[in-house]
Hints:
- The protein has helices spanning 11-15, 19-30, 37-44, 48-60, 92-103, 107-127, 137-150, 174-179, 181-199, and strands at 35-36, 64-69, 78-83, 155-160, 163-168, 204-213, 216-223.
- The protein is an alpha+beta fold and 225 residues long.
- It has two domains: 11-83, Arc Repressor Mutant, subunit A (Orthogonal Bundle), CATH 1.10.10.10; 92-223, Muramoyl-pentapeptide Carboxypeptidase, domain 2 (2-Layer Sandwich).
- The strands form two sheets. The chain has a four-stranded antiparallel beta sheet with strand order 4-5-7-6, covered by helices on one side. Strands 1-3-2 form a three-stranded antiparallel beta sheet.
- The protein is elongated, with a radius of gyration of 20 Å.
- The chain starts with 10 loop residues before the first helix and ends with a strand.
Amino acid sequence: MSGPAAGPPPATAVALASRQRRRLFELLDAADAPTDAHELAAATGLHVTTVRHHLDVLHRAGLVASHSLRRASVGRPRTVYTAVRNREPSDYPTLTRLLASQLADSPEERVARSEKAGLAWAAELMAGADPGPATDLDAAARVVAGMFGELGFDPELAGDRSDRQIRLRACPFRAAARANPDVVCSVHRGLLRGTLDRLGTPQTTVRLLPFVEPDLCLAHLSTVD
Length: 225
């Protein structure tokens, strides 16, 4: 029996994967009045253009609302933002727990099937992409980091060319991964392996260390001697 196909993370999870967007959302959620991009830029130290970009992402995810306010003086109306409260809670952790309980009878089989799902996810993501072959570890790590960035993991490259680390500073499935690391983290490990295989990268060891810090997982890619 083949493993389940993994889909993309929900839009809200991707939007809140960025620390900067989480900070903006927290400020809006705590604000007593609608707030504009200039006020948020002053509060965070970000450039106003960067703030507007992040607000657009939050808006598309349904996390913030915007409207225009007429100025007391002459000038264009201000665009102000508010956090969307009373949103439906996410059932992804519950859903993942229920699926994990039915995935296999043993922990070993759950891990194997979850990694297989990650391999299938990599095939799906790479099907429409043409990054070209990554014949060395450094090039492969950059492609992998870019892909994980698009998925909302907020990656950062570290290490050297023979032992590349990808610091995953945000996980769109954090709550589900804490509850079911054997399933969720194994899917992500399979995604790593499958991506490297499709890039044609030489023999590479892949290790995924979940939650080395409360909000940090580490992916290690190293060449096989």
